[in-house]
Amino acid sequence: MRMELRVCKQCYEGTHGNPQKTAVTQDMVALAERIREYKDLIGIDSLYITRVAEGDPGGEEVLPAIVASIENDQIQLSDTQLVMEDDQQNMLVYPEPEDILEVLTRNVDQVSQQTRQDVAVELSEEAAELVG
After folding, report:
1. 84-98 pLDDT, tens per residue?
2. Which of 18, 63, 79, 90 has the lowest CB atom count within 10 Å?
3. Distances from the Cα of 129 to the Cα of 17, 23, 53, 123, angstroms
4. d(C-alpha 106, C-alpha 104), whole Å
């Protein structure tokens, strides 16, 4: 399985002025980094973390899936998404922050079952509310 987390670079850095989205974005990256550190324990071949700059069309680094929507008769590309490719080359794309956090936290839970090390990632209040 291959995974790629794409996040808005400006949201991650906090330059968009939305502290809630910044906290959630930083938590997504922290979770993905932890999973990447222990990926071999849960059968993940690779995990890429891509910070997408404004104006970057989709921003994929490895997995060529892009989520789009239509707003005001214009195509809007999603700058935050989790893309997964399984061993049969099926692509799964999660564009919603709640779903991304759910998938990432489940993977961290799987890692914690495979090691004696503390792999927990402390989530912000905003992300903890989304995971519920």
Report:
1. 998 898 999 999 999
2. 90
3. 20, 12, 27, 9
4. 5
- The pair phi, psi for residue 85, each rounded to 5°, is -125, 120
Q: Which two tokens stand for residue 11?
A: 């949201």
Under 8 Å between Cβ of 6 and 48: no
DSSP letter for 39, please: G
Tell whether the torsion through CA atoms of 118, 123, 128 and 131 is positive or negative.
Answer: negative
The closest of 111, 103, 96, 92 to 36, measured between CA atoms, is: 111
Residue with tokens 């990432």: 104
Sign of CA pseudo-dihedral 72, 74, 79, 80: positive
Q: Which two tokens stand for residue 89?
A: 């080359």
For the stretch 74-125, pLDDT in tens is 877 777 899 999 889 899 999 999 999 999 999 999 999 999 999 999 999 9
